[in-house]
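hey m, so remember when u said the tokens were messed up on ur end? i reran from scratch. heres the input so u can diff it against urs
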Amino acid sequence: MNTESKEIKKGSELQYWLYSIGNFPNNIIFLMVGTYISYFYTNLLGISPVIAGTIFMVARLVDAFTDPLMGMIVDKTNTKWGKFRPYIIAGAPFLGIMFVLLFSVPNLSAGGKIVYAFVTYIIYSLAWTVVQIPQLALPAILTNDLAVRTRIQAIFQAFGTIASLIIASWALPILNMLGGEDEPSAWFKFTMIFGIASVVMFILSAMSVKNLDVYDPERKPAAERKRMSLSETFSVITNNRALVCVLIAYGTDMFAIQICNALRMYFFKYNMSGRTDLITYIGYATTICGFAMVLFIQPMVRKLGKKMAIIIIEAIAIIVTLPMLFTGMSGAYSVAMVMFTYLAIAFTGTINNMLSRAAVLDSANYAFVKTGIDGTALVNSTFTFINKCCQAFSMFFSGMILSATGYNAELQQQTPGCLRAILLLCTLTPIAGYIASVVAMAFYPMDKKGEDEMQRQLDELAAKGISGNQELRVG
């Protein structure tokens, strides 16, 4: 290959920020669903927690096929509009529509509402797959520098924390302003407003990389390329120890966070005697941390590497959860201890999310260096699938426990057994998840020296113009 004729492209600082705008709609939709869909199903649609949990689990069975399929489709795409952008731009309006329908209350019988919830949630999940998988792969074309890529994820997450702030701190006040949290029209108006805004931002984010996500004239047409077997294609996952470790670590951590998100409304409403006003401060803490880490995440990764950084953050998460657990178990809830735990977890969760997302992209490079197969989108599909699984498992698991301990949406105060279950789900279950995450990252194959070596190999490949389906970029 003529290495001098192939221009090495990279994203600009402005493109890092414009691309990252896309995480605002990501988090608005994902966190709205993760935080409030259980409450919406049980308190507005009148669906039992067990049936709601079943809906989430069935959707994940569908995702087990559609997510990797979408990843393979994206990896094989090479159009005049680019590789990733067509799916984001075409899928965003559909996702916005499904977001609204998801939080709508149809005039149907009890059985009809269950069917409606099944159908809308599964179609929403499919729309999310079409948009999310190519979007998460875009940093791979913005830069090939592993530390800079982590900084892009920090900017990406910073925009996401603005959405987190809206969902955690302003969603309930906005719903009350629109008619009340138990008024179906309020939820419809809320999702309509943010659904439209999300579609616009998804498209703006995708268009920001227009000069990088381009047709590759040197790539052979599909009919002329050597056909790879499914086992060869999936080798970027099955033979990828780095990916397996980071997915286990991220998955257990995200399961812990999603448990807390799904039960946050219940905890502050019942265990904290209606102090839902305190939820506001959690959103502010997440936003502050998100933007602060834009400055500090890249130096931290260059110093420690992602493996050690994730282990340290998870260890801190275990420690800061203990005050809420101990005071709650004593029967004397302390606002100070509860808020200390929630605010600290907002910080550790935000930082770990940045590091894990960057580590997933690193694992795609890890596989490419070892196999020569570019499976960036396929690798990212596993991340998307794990994310949705954690959300579903957490809601299913918490729904089963709530039902088993006698939760009744019509009661102003729940039974002592139910209150104890909510506390343990918000503390002991996350601690178990954080411990599992530390263990998984202990087996992660790339420490700081390993990352430096892979960076050297990627730079050499980029200088030679060698890549899989898409040319490698240097940052």
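this time it looks ok to me. DSSP finds 16 helices and no strands in the chain. if urs says something different then somethings off w ur setup not the seq
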